[in-house]
User: Fold these one by one.
Assistant:
Number 1:
Amino acid sequence: MHKIRTNYDVIVIGGGAMGLATAYHLSKKKAKTLVLEQFTFINQLGSSAGVSRQYRIPYPEEYMVQMALDAQPYWDELQSHAPMPLMDKVGTLWFGDPKVHSTEGNIAEAEKSLKALNVPYTSLTSREIEKKYHFTNLPETYTGLFQADGASIDLRATLQTLYDWNKVNLHVTLKEESPVIKIEQIHQIFQVTTPEGAYTADKIVIVPGPYINNVINLLKFKIEATYWNMSSAYFKKTDPKIQYPTWFVFQNAEGSNGNQFYGFPAVDWNHPEYIRVAPDFVIEPLDNPNQRTLIPNPQELAYTAEWVKKHMKGLDPTPHYTSTCLIALSKIPNKELLIDFAPPYVANNDSIVVYATGWAAKFIPLLGKILSEMALEGHTSYNIEPFQMGYKYFKSM
Ligand SMILES: Cc1cc2nc3c(=O)[nH]c(=O)nc-3n(C[C@H](O)[C@H](O)[C@H](O)COP(=O)(O)OP(=O)(O)OC[C@H]3O[C@@H](n4cnc5c(N)ncnc54)[C@H](O)[C@@H]3O)c2cc1C
């Protein structure tokens, strides 16, 4: 029997960071690829909104430390295609209450993993953190670690580099304003429908960021997730010489104040006179991504401004350039990335690759490689066992 000719080898659903990175790697294998994006490319409405992200190696799990290390050569490769630096390597500072376990992990556990993998870092006391990194009024009991390979990622430049590559690549077609509204299967072939038309492919990669359920529901399964509409703000430097690394503070919640914050250095590529500081919590998680707003929660901003005022030197504690970013987080404890094929009750499940949930900007080029291999070869050379959690978290509808 002759195989029916499809329009594409692979259709990538979602044109955010992961979709563009997957297309980049597919193009290198000369796979005929279509990327469908419901909004415009490089939009501010998904999980890749805003400009800066943290690249860090400390994680409580050794496999996450390893993954951050493994991502580095892929960043170097992507950098070779970019006219501007994609990262500003200012280091990672983790500090706070050593007893706190947060969604980021725990300082002592991260130290153990770094040690096990021979990653160099420095342990710090509260006073050393204050002296070297401009924080102040920290409790004596706080501890910290500094890891010099951490960086601030220029996410917009990363997306632009991937977009520019795909735009001129003969193997890739990019279509924006193309929401996927139907996925059908005709024998082994996928027909993916948007209001503009239907396209066929042998394989599909599903990377719709926080809109994950909107897409996998079309194939009659879902993932239990909670949605965080995260606030962010910039604070003006009053001391032009002051510079911070990328940092995260571990503290226990106090009432509605989740009390965990993270921040960035001043960078040339965005409001260079300002420093970005953001809360790593939301007061009210959402049940549905459609409930998000573009206005940050004022109370979350107030808690952030209070932290800046009390603990950071050289900044005016008035929030400026505020924004939000939407992310889907699964209920997987610590293992927030879910990378898998569709569950077995979906026809041709091994031709459907899904990436969902979690904090993954630091892995963008590596994840693109993993997802492209899964689509083209049906497996990946990378060990994704810790992330292959679909059997537990995908539910049939
Ligand atoms: C506030 C915040 C801070 C973060 N900080 C860090 C950090 O410091 N370090 C780190 O490593 N990670 C961080 N992350 C996580 C990281 O930014 C995300 O993991 C990453 O950007 C996700 O990219 P994505 O391509 O999966 O999703 P997205 O960028 O959301 O892209 C998905 C795309 O799919 C499109 N889409 C959805 N449904 C459809 C459909 N039906 N048809 C067509 N297109 C569709 C969407 O419009 C969207 O453009 C942070 C996230 C947030 C929100």
Note: The chain has two domains: 8-48+156-223+334-396, 92-148+226-330.
Number 2:
Amino acid sequence: MNRKQQVRAAFSAAARFYEEAARAQAISADFLAELVAGLPAPQAPKVLEFGCGTGLLTRRLYPRLGGEWLVSDLSPDMLRAAESALPGPRYQIVDAENPDLDESFDLIVSNMAAQWFADLPEAVARLASRLDPAGHLVFSTLAAGSFRQWRDAHQVLGLECGVPAFPTVDALKNTLPQARIVEQTFDLDYADGRAFAAELKHIGAGTPTPGHVPLSVGQLRRVFQGLGSPCAMTYHVAHVIISKE
Ligand SMILES: C[S@@+](CC[C@H](N)C(=O)[O-])C[C@H]1O[C@@H](n2cnc3c(N)ncnc32)[C@H](O)[C@@H]1O
């Protein structure tokens, strides 16, 4: 299985119980929905959502904006869960890094999916090319500082962390010079490090960085000890707004 197939399989396996554990995604979706709702958009806009998951953002925005929506994800199971929760929009499997679409949109939106892209600037360029002249591409993604406690607990032990190195906001600004970025930072509490790792797996986000060698049971136990119990985990979300005009 290549990495994209691994990511799709992990999210598909998680689709059924995803929302029981997707606390951070719900907080980010609330914030992003407000940002999107504040943008100028035509009446009944044409909207593409990518990486919809079970539809946390869809349910916050579709009833509010109305219009004609194409809601998409890489994972068929996620897409089915989203569709059964909110009939109305059109649902379709789309790899947002290579969107094979011949339509254009007033708005392209996405919550917490772009961190799975192999090449963010390339994907953003392809997506932005599907915008109408006054359109907006608005998405959230994890930025550096996220899971800082998890990373630190590995570092003090000299261990390699399997969580990807998320880009700094400055790096995002450099690679996406046309973007406006709004930052959101919050902490979530966990019983311990094991509960954090379990939550990532529960939502299907446990696929490690390519080439990561899994830690031994003993190494992982030492990471959990280092984190203590209970522990907090920081989420630093970059909300990226790219406007065509
Ligand atoms: C963390 S979930 C977020 C889901 C949802 N937007 C939410 O806020 O709960 C990430 C989603 O992105 C999807 N995804 C990952 N890579 C993708 C890609 N290249 N194209 C489309 N969807 C992708 C996954 O299948 C998964 O449903």
Note: The CA atoms of residues 185 and 236 lie 4 Å apart.
Number 3:
Amino acid sequence: MGNDSYSEAMLGDGPRSRVVIVGAGHGGANAAAFLRQKGFGGEVILIGEEPVMPYQRPPLSKAYIADHMSVEDLYLKPTQFYRDQGIELRLGTRVAEVNPEGKFVSFSDGTTLEYDVLILATGAAPRSLDVPGSDLTGIQELRTIADAGRLRDLIPSSGHLVVVGGGYIGLEVAAVCQTNGVRVTVIEREDRLLARVASVELSKVLTAYHQERGTNILTSDSVVGFAGGADGAVRSVILSDGTEIACGGVLTGIGAVPCDALACGAGLHCDNGIVVDEQSRTSDRWIFAIGDVTRRPLPNRTDLFRMESIPSAVEQAGQAVAAIMGGPQPKPEVPWFWSDQFNLKLKMAGLVHEGEEVIARNSLEGFKIAFFHVRGENVVAVETINSPGEFMAGKRFIEKNARVDLTKLADSSVPLQGVLV
Ligand SMILES: Cc1cc2nc3c(=O)[nH]c(=O)nc-3n(C[C@H](O)[C@H](O)[C@H](O)COP(=O)(O)OP(=O)(O)OC[C@H]3O[C@@H](n4cnc5c(N)ncnc54)[C@H](O)[C@@H]3O)c2cc1C
């Protein structure tokens, strides 16, 4: 161990250099793979608390709970990949503490592991709904494969599932229920669905689409408790106005909180997530942080963001590895995200802010529509449904800060390359 120089490349390529990655999710597994891709020849140790091979989370609220995927289908890479690449996996193992002065992590059994460089990729955890009755059985959150297994069993037996929280995860699960003939009610505290992350326009389209397929949507309503039967299972959800909604199961999807306790305990700069720079460095020069656990800068923004998305975690894995290896930084990517609900493929790029001018392209009929958010003549965000061309073009316009003709943009008979000024 012990490479104290902080040269262009942080680590020598020798077999004694060691990168330890805590968190074997999307960010951590990609960082390990990128290290090898970039030719790092030292030790790579990937530690994950979950006793499962690194896997994709997005299908957990989509195809996996609809019973269309096996556990193996979810794996990010086949088991052999880690062997071939010499990536040591320590699964079912929780890191209890980080000691930045001694450059080691420790485990609950008192053992320790030294590192030259540490990458924290500990993700986020579901925000808990702390109301009376929340410990009843049949109330489920969704983050891990284990949660998804329980939800998959719960959905058909529930008869009526209540989803608390009208965000993307809640709506995806609602769509799966509805498609499988299970009655579903979505309860959202704000006055519209996706209030935190989507425009009013997109939110209206999705609300109508879900309602037309039978989903009961209640907005401006909050859950104040759950009531259960003698068997300890949830029987109803109680709203703030006293209304009780009978149900056989509940999914809570009210957001996620960063798992930054290790970093905070180690004295790293944390502020609702581990604060990192454009290269995913923390306030300790030997420690990087990536993915949902971070609050990160974005191009052309002065404030920091918590971007909970696969593209963001993968981009940061690339940034950290480039910094560790002393290579060129990857080109900054416009933040983007996707969601699947019924037969709607949603793709969004850029950040949506209320009050911006919104230009719709295509129509609601056929459910192929794009909402371009513009400031002056520049597209700053785009939200699309079943419109991959508009998504790609919109993302490119944002990236290039391109000027567009707003009248042409609204006219779907004008090809997208023809809307540039
Ligand atoms: C149901 C669901 C659906 C989603 N759908 C989409 C989607 O459609 N599109 C999209 O872009 N994003 C989606 N996301 C978000 C996406 O999955 C996350 O942004 C991504 O997984 C973040 O990767 P990460 O590596 O930061 O965290 P994670 O993938 O959460 O991995 C973190 C890992 O670290 C482990 N860990 C934490 N603490 C410790 C410790 N002390 N010791 C050891 N291990 C530890 C955790 O157990 C976990 O396995 C979805 C998320 C969920 C839950």
Note: Residues 128-254 form a domain with the FAD/NAD(P)-binding domain fold (CATH 3.50.50.60).
Number 4:
Amino acid sequence: MHLTPALKEAYSKEHLTAREAQVKAEWIAWGPIVFQVSRLMKKFGILEMLRNSKNGMKEAEIAKEARISGYAAKVLLEASLSIGTVLIDPETDRYTLSKTGWCFLTDPAVNVNAEFCHDVNYEGWFHLEESLKEGRPAGLEHFGPWSTVYEGLSQLPPQVQKSWFGFDHFYSDSSFQQALELVLANKPKTLLDVGGNTGRWALQCVAFDKDVKVTIVDLPQQLEMMRRETAGKPGADRIDGYKMNLLDASQSFPTDKYYDIIWMSQFLDCFGEDEIVSIVSRAAKIMDDNSRLYIMETLWDRQRFETAAFCLTMTSLYFTAMANGNSKMYHSDDLKRLVETAGLEIETIHDDLGYGHSIMVCKKS
Ligand SMILES: C[S@@+](CC[C@H](N)C(=O)[O-])C[C@H]1O[C@@H](n2cnc3c(N)ncnc32)[C@H](O)[C@@H]1O
């Protein structure tokens, strides 16, 4: 199995003492409440007031400023001492923010992940067992009757939508600039953006290159959102939409024109293995020796940092319980095998874009 050096070191040996292992096991046991307490410490403004306080704050002051009862402040603060997001001075009983509390409050990736975990996944993950056994996103039921989250994306409650798009955009936005330079380097005339969503990438393409034309392939509901989002923006007249449900194997990619580049960003992770083979095989049908398929994914085995791989292997369970029941954040060996089964070969892989994307450049084999 391919693993970066950091992951090889972390995953192939036991690193913890027995005592540390027992502590970690307790963290797992209490994981849900560790999360909820920390989330509320932030939501109630307690972490922020501690960061802003000069000499720390007493429990009663915190309760007053957060407008919660003394009891509520006490249970949250005491749990937070154990979690490690706050510290206390036993001489003065004043609370201050710890380094972990500071990261939880201010780190943008942590914030996006926490909101995604709470708003999109928290209740649904209770149904992970059914999802795993039945191969369907059993946790999606409390949002609506759809078989995948993508069908319901435009109808999710506003806060859920905000966190879903916040998560999606946070990661892809971080890589788009580097990706644009790579993908548009040879001045392609036409680009097919498969799963182009609200048109963020397409808008950046048409701004980057004043000649390139982009066609976005997506579900009809998403194309409507895309049209609203791109309307009146510079270059929007060079962005087209093409409705397609990629899960329907009888539907083909557009053949109205020749596409120099087919672009799939954070897209194939929305599909199971057989579906990926079907989608990439259909893409191969509209390619010739000069066209290239660029697949941008966060491949967990190619991460330089263990924390990044941790976030990705955890994200896989969003796909299991909420998104579709059969997809995940892929390992590069698996994605390579699927692309090759579909009749393409990998020309190069570019790693370490943005927060940990890789781009697989594929051509006809
Ligand atoms: C995770 S988003 C990626 C969005 C964008 N490419 C990015 O990098 O941020 C996946 C996209 O695939 C689309 N999608 C999912 N299932 C689809 C299907 N069956 N047919 C067509 N598009 C689909 C979704 O609507 C969504 O726009």
Note: The two ends are 24 Å apart (CA to CA).
